[in-house]
Amino acid sequence: MGTAATEPLLVCREVTKQFGALTAVNKMSFTLMPGEVLGIGGPNGAGKTTLFEAISGLNPATSGEIIFQGRNITGLPPEALCHAGIARTFQLNAGFDSLTVRGNVEIAAYFGRQNRLIPGLRIGRDVARHVDEALAAVGLTGKDDEIVGRLPVLDRKLLMLAGALASNPTLLLMDEPVGGLNPKEIDHVMAVVRKIAARGITIILIEHVMRFLVQLSSRVLIMHHGEKIYEGKPQGLIEDRNVVDVYLGEGASQRLGNLMKEQASA
């Protein structure tokens, strides 16, 4: 049964992650509605990736609650969360370098949708169809037989995204999806993410490239020292003195304001 449009897809209640005496995420609370694109920004070390790790189960929260589709998922292992509908990409270009593009996505499609206690000897037709759809969604059709270790950075990022989509997510977490890319490549990934969002997949993305963040996000959350210092519309970022002082700076704030003016008048 699907989540009603009026009910939150994800709720984080005072989520905290501590590493000894260090509090990396401190009582983080927010609600995510189905179909939203939430952009998370902030300085390095703000706790953004640690928050992703808590939500995706890679590094469970020390305290607090994470509710997904009305179910308390706090502390569940990553594979259970993947099967429940939460997929994730990473800052670094994770992949099986010696396998082909298609082989990587086949693994994600085969193991990412359900438990496989006794894996079969063959990839079924359904899995093959899911792989084809995922490759097409990110623009990697025709590159099936290329070896992953030889791919350029853009294609490796798209491959991670294809693997995430192959697991049939309801919620997609993207950690710095355009880090290290040039402007043209950033525009390509932006177009891909817009198509994914148009399919109804809810997205949370972490990114330092602010034009990517503000142009894609329906709402933005800025973190600093593990805490939320801003949550609201992208347009409000440049008006928030705290965000400008600790993160954007005057120059970036002005450039961002000009970008949003151009976007509004386009």
Please give the structural blueprint.
Elements: E1 10-19, E2 22-32, E3 37-41, H1 48-56, E4 63-68, E5 71-72, H2 78-84, E6 86-89, H3 101-111, H4 125-138, H5 153-166, E7 171-175, H6 183-198, E8 202-206, H7 210-216, E9 219-224, E10 227-232, H8 241-265
Parallel strand pairs: 3-8, 3-9, 6-7, 7-8
Antiparallel strand pairs: 1-2, 1-4, 4-5, 9-10
Helix pairs in contact: 3-4, 3-5, 4-5, 7-8
Fold and architecture overview:
Residues 10-250 form the ABC transporter domain. Keywords: ATP-binding, Nucleotide-binding, Transport. With 266 residues, the chain is of the alpha/beta class. It has two domains: 1-85 and 169-266, P-loop containing nucleotide triphosphate hydrolases (Rossmann fold, 3-Layer(aba) Sandwich), CATH 3.40.50.300; 95-167, no CATH class. Helices cover 39% and strands 23% of the residues. The protein contains eight helices and ten strands. The chain is globular, with a radius of gyration of 19 Å.
